[in-house]
Every structure is written in C-alpha cells, then in structure tokens.
Amino acid sequence: MKVAFTLAYNGTHYLGSQTQRESKNTILGNVTQVFQALGITDKIVASGRTDKGVHATGQVCHITLPEYWSDLKKLQHTVNKMLPSSILLKSIRPVDETFHARYSAKRRVYRYIIKTQQSNPFEADFVTFLPSADMQNVFENIKLFEGRHDFSAFMKTGSDVGSTERIIYKAFAYKYREHYVLYFEANGFLRSQIRLMVGALLQLNAVQIQEKLSHKKEHKIRPAPPNGLYLAKIKY
C-alpha cells in the first residue's frame, strides 16, 4: 500500500532533512531507521529538502508499505513511540499509485519568524532575533518577489537545478503578538532561496532588491539564519 505521511520536526540539531551517507543525523535518516526496524524497507521520498537547522510543520513524504502494515493508526502510534521527541509523524493516509510527494505538489508554503527583541534561551532555536531590524522595510518590499522570476541570484552556489525560474504566488508579512511572520507561497523554491530573500529584505532597499532580482546589479547579501524558517505546508 502506498501512503503519504506528514512530518513536523525541530531541525535544530539535525544536518537537514535528507538522508546522507556520511551521517544518520538527519530527519529522514532517523525516520528511515525506525521504519526499517519495523520491516518497512522502501525508500522515503519527501516533497523537498530542508537545510540544517530549518524546521517543518508540514513536510510530506510517500512510501510503500508491506502488506502486514495495514493498520495505519497503529503504525503512526508505533513510529511516534520510536522517534526522537524532536520529530513527529502527524498523519498517514493511503494514496493512489500515481501520487508523488515531490512531483505531485502544486504549491509549497514557508514561513519565516522574526522577533525584534533581545534573544532568549527559550525561543533562540525557533525564532530569529533581530533587535535592529527595519520591519517597515520588510512589509513594504516583500511583495517585490511575487510573480515569475529567475531567482538564480537568490540561491546557494553549487545548486544543481534544471531551471532557476520560479513563480511566487503570495509573499507578505504580518505581525502576530510579538512575532513578525513572513509568508511565501510558490510552485517551488531553490536551495536557500527563502533565506536569501529574507536576507535581502533585511539588508537592501527596494531599488537594490529590484536590481538584484532583475540581474541589473549584483548586491551581496548574507542569508537569514536557518532557525527562523519553517516548511509549513505542501499543497497538492
């Protein structure tokens, strides 16, 4: 039976989501280890990768289960007992054989969380603290990223992709209590694209962002830290 399952995780102490040959200290490395202990040997396919220190509330994966794992509620309960507390199997459901966690996805939603206060030890792993951030600049300029663009100036060097063009359907910011939330929804994102876009919003003005986005002028920027970034939802 082919199933899709949704993961939530605290990525702070992991080397990203994808399995790695050099280390098992990844999100899918841990999930794979648990599945294999339960006799599930098919390869997990995720909707996309998250980098070291990045979190997720809605990472979707698919896998094919052996026949004896037909009780999905029992499987979910068993897996969650075996996983570290920083990873949660939120849901699991049967899907059609044509379903693909990555290629069937229509849109991906990420959120980036900022707090303009001094850091505290209880939120430091989950929020980017920037006491001097110009959030008015962020609110005014974030919509510059909406639309179809070549985002090659907003991706990590060494990325191996067929096309650097992406469509951002929604980009906006809002305040929730003491937190500022930056929302991005697109058909896909390049590696580190969101962290670099957030970095641009924090370090450049509107003209400089437009110049970088249109490749008229290069402006060096630092990517925003990973701890404020969340893969929130995959839309199919």
Under the CATH scheme, the architecture of the largest domain is 2-Layer Sandwich
The CATH class of the largest domain, by name, is: Alpha Beta
Low-confidence stretches: none
Relative strand content? 25-35%
What fold name goes in the CATH topology slot of the largest domain? Alpha-Beta Plaits
The CATH homologous superfamily of the largest domain is named Pseudouridine synthase I, catalytic domain, C-terminal subdomain
Total number of distinct structural domains: 2
Report the sheet with the most strands, covering strand number, pairing sense and barrel closure. Answer: 10 strands, mixed
Rounded mean pLDDT is: 96
Number of helices: 5
Characterise this structure.
With 236 residues, the protein is α+β, with helices and mostly antiparallel strands. It folds into two domains: 93 residues, Pseudouridine synthase I, catalytic domain, N-terminal subdomain (Alpha-Beta Plaits, 2-Layer Sandwich); 129 residues, Pseudouridine synthase I, catalytic domain, C-terminal subdomain (Alpha-Beta Plaits). Helix content is 20%, strand content 30%. The protein contains five helices and ten strands. Strands 1, 2, 3, 4, 5, 6, 7, 8, 9 and 10 form a ten-stranded mixed β-sheet that branches. A hairpin with a 2-residue loop joins strand 8 and strand 9. The longest helix is centred in the first third of the chain and has 11 residues. The radius of gyration is 19 Å and the shape is globular.
